[in-house]
Write the structure tokens for this entry.
Amino acid sequence: MRKSSQLTVIAAAISAMFSNTSVAQESTKGTKKIETIIVSGTPGGRGISKADASFAVTNIDAVHIEKLSPKSTADLLKSVPGVWVESSGGESGANVFVRGFPGGGDAPFLTVSLQGSPVYPAPTLSFLENSSIFRLDETISTMEALRGGPNPVVSNGQPGLTTNFHLKRGSSDTEGTFKYTTSDYGLQRIDTVLSGELSDDLYYMVGGYIKRSSGIRDAEFTSERGQQFTINLTKELDNGEINIYTRQTDDTGAWYLPTPLGIDGVDASYTQLGTLNRQATIYAGASAHEMQVDLGEGRGWKGHVSGGSIKLELDNGWQFIDRFSLTKGDANTHGLVPSGSATILSDIADNGENAKGAVTGTLYSGDTPVQQLGRWVVFKDIESFTNDLAFSKSFSQIDSAFGLYTATTSAQDWWSLGNTAYHVLKPGGEMLDDVACNRSLAGCDWNYDINSTGDAKTIALYTTQTYHFSEALTFDLGLRNENHQVDYSVDEGLDSIINKFVTYDERKTSWTLGANQKLSQTTGIFARVNKGYKMPYFDDFRDNYGTYQAGESLIKEVSQLEIGYKYMSQNTDFFATVFANEVKGDTFVRQPGTPAEILTNEALGIELDYTYNHQSGLSVNLNATWQDAEITQSPTNQGNDSQRQPNWQLRIMPSYEFEIADMFATAYGTLSAVDDRFGNNENTVVLEGYSKIDLGLMIEATEHVKFQLSVDNLTDKQGITEGDPRNADAPNGRYIMPRSVKFSVRYNF
């Protein structure tokens, strides 16, 4: 009954949207839409008019990003249709799922690109997904988000979602921004950006931030700290341009994990981490090497993403584009990870009654809630270099492009997982004495320690050909032949013995076929079918080593069909895309060392992306997705819903501009709603749907000064994004972020 009523709400919203579109068509008749150029999904990022594209791309500019006030890069992706984001783990370690693509965690079908180059070719490694190594700040001008479409053919061949962030660039005018932000959770943050002209046709943009806070879930110490600095240089040439950039980041934050459900005092503002437990002693490997760790270091990124591009107009109408990127740094993880259900102290105390705290010496009674928490430590050193080179030329009716994409990727990992001990179940609860397994070097539960090193190399030749039957009708074809090589070895147990090793060499050909038909100056339809592959990286082999040895390639095969309608007028953009996906060879590993489940998933659905701007100052953005995602092949779960995929989700963001006391103001808000989901492939764990409201107000006090007040999760909803991925039957879950308030002052010059 509840689901039916929610679907009715969506139907009403969609009906209203179509009504608004009809009005817009009448009121904007004869006007001309300002052309939007997109580079995602094009060879080497050559660019194409959004109106002419045979695929749907969502564009989010700096003003929209400011209104959304995202807490992380992943949080921003919630505004993209067809994308389900679980950003409740903090600034790093999000789970990002794409329409109809299966996943048990992380972001296996997400590529984050900067200036058109992937920040890291492997979409997901254990304890690392692309958004974890990218931080938003005032240096970003726009983001493009492409689902499906030509993705399997161009760039790194990501079949799912590619998000491309563009840096601001300088101009002949010197411009700058200084912004101070604070919050009700003690945030202190300063952002700056400055741009201008260094010499004739040489432009610069520099900017960054520094921030400190105890975290939106108060850890009682400075658990969030970071700084970032970006330089972007552009040299305009007579026949093109050269761009060089570097983005230096050192940013870490507490890793928020699932917590027990139904325990007094444990809610959306709760975090296990605190002053009494951030420092710990763990014993790693077969030799039980003693190691002192500070779990307050959380998850983060300390490194750089640097690169550039060369664009040239050559003789005889040929164009040349080369984009390159180098990423290098440390993406480490420290955290307190729950293991199993909560219990009471009398069930595990040596004397069956009470026990003392290991730090304070406090005597806790037998009815004190306690839980096993693992002190997990992961050191991850990553490096990658990508290069995407393309030549293109327009003939009489054909646009031809030929490209070469290469990537080298490496990761060196040292893990010590497990190290569990019983802790008092309260914010920052201390470990307990007088508990037998707390004194054991092996801990109270399982341990998994590794030392691994891996290198991957990808070489792909691709081509796209677009045939213009007329000004209104085009067909395009894309082909990609990719060779993927991996060398990888793992020492499990930290005993200097290599237990698993891989020498891998596979080749696959991806393709895409699309058509675009303009129906009028403002409307059009498009269709696309593609077939692509997600190649395996290091953790895929470790998690599925037995399957790999048995002869499986561990390649995920992805087939997609899209049919879309688009309407673009002076004040309205509307895209509706029907999609059908099939993903073969998906693997799910519940916990390191356990057998993998190998599945085929299929999905059918529709996504809507709608923006309306009226001269009165009213604007509305809506994105909605409905889908039916099902496990169609599985040893035990065939016919079940795909885990962590909601049947529908809706996001509406209205805003209204007005004048007050000779000042220009904008009031805005966001309503987000999501349907129930299943937390496991067995469909035995139901994650209930929820809705959330955000509000904000911007006031331009003068030409140069702007104030902003934003409230996230106004009603303090206690929504659950996931259960316990390591133990589906344990009553643990991760809440969405609690209510928070941010205030900023911006000075533009």
Summary: The first helix runs from residue 2 to 27.
